[in-house]
What does this fold into?
Amino acid sequence: VRVEKTGPIHVELISIGREILRGNIPDSNAVHLAGHLSRRGALVHRITAVDDSDRAITSAITEALERESHLVVTTGGLGPTADDRTLGALADALKRPLAVHPHAREMVESAYRRLHERGLVALEGMTAARQKICSLPIGSEPVPNAVGTAPGVLVRLPGGAAVLCLPGVPEEMRAVFDAAIPMLKDLIPNAHVARREVEAPTADESALRPLLDRMSEEFPAVWVKSHAPGFGSENVLIRVTLEASARTRQEAETMVEGALRRLLALAARG
Amino acid sequence: VRVEKTGPIHVELISIGREILRGNIPDSNAVHLAGHLSRRGALVHRITAVDDSDRAITSAITEALERESHLVVTTGGLGPTADDRTLGALADALKRPLAVHPHAREMVESAYRRLHERGLVALEGMTAARQKICSLPIGSEPVPNAVGTAPGVLVRLPGGAAVLCLPGVPEEMRAVFDAAIPMLKDLIPNAHVARREVEAPTADESALRPLLDRMSEEFPAVWVKSHAPGFGSENVLIRVTLEASARTRQEAETMVEGALRRLLALAARG
It folds into this structure.
């Protein structure tokens, strides 16, 4: 994948962990990342949740890169236990062996010292389990984890694409993601997104269709979407959302405001 | 895919809708379906969220079937507007043309009549938008939607696998899924799942690893998983979950209870 300087970057998210596949927890990490990256103007194309298995994780990463993603962000599977398999699977996907990364090792040692001082873990030195979390695919950069023990992992690929691996515990995920953003500033845009929502005077999405089709034709750069709350809801009226992304806030606001005025004019005409 | 009568069925979920990829809403449908199907003993292998685009949906369905899923369940994209694209994309994936299904047409007409009587929609007859929601890939069965207008769609494939398409509005999704379960009783098992959770006397997942490795070796049929709440949490202690699935509740309880006793014995030994 060669990252072009124009156009929005394509992002895929991969959430790793059987607890998501069992329906035990909602995938709040994906919501956080998708929202944050979208508000910056990135296009999140796909979110995939897979099991804690080497084969499933390796396939998901390989497929996401084959779909020409500029950035693939994984969450989960970075911890010390046997079902934390992300780095081994990433190494397989990239065909790069794992090796203890000196800087990651320092991060892990100092994290366990910090937790030991808080009385939370024993000071056992570099056990096999701890060594695992600082063994990264060759050529990776560790990303500091201010909350937990396992660093994030950033791999830049030839051509400009990148894979970022974040921990699965939401608080750690956010801390590592925040630390990774400045490292990715050439890749993650800082666009502005403007959004408007109006209520249509109908509960019938089928009646709105010709209007929405026309809007999409006239404003290809504005995302026009109807949301049916469902006929069982208290308020059954359709909501229509307009969204536009641009380099400046003003540009995005102007685009979406123009589309909204046109929508209201078309609707008034009936 | 030929569905074997033994072993758990493999399920994939596909969630369709840009609002998920934008991080505007959590994918609560996937949580509901994954939880329900897992509790019945099915193995949900992958959850994929894709955009409202023909190509993305067709690829996601094709890939899920190529991974030898017995059941693929999609949510979203069944409505009347232009960005509701699931049935067209499914038709492409299965290489079966769309045609108005007489029974689906009756369901849609009667749903709009019902909503008209509640004063919610105009009685416009079979508009293009309404005809779209009863145009199914040839060989499909419509599934009644007691809440909204768009029927669900069930396609049985040669070999015994099936694709089930559900609406995206959560209340409609649940109604259509409930109606589909009896239609899928040869495919969806009715296993019992037993579950135990214990708190480990440590916050250090790396210290638990040898114990959990041993449990996985001794009890391959029991899912043993540690959950780190994260070192920033109020209660930092690791929780360990044990889960087993079997044909009878008693069998599942016996399996998980035996594993729990062994875990406590190993832990007491240090």
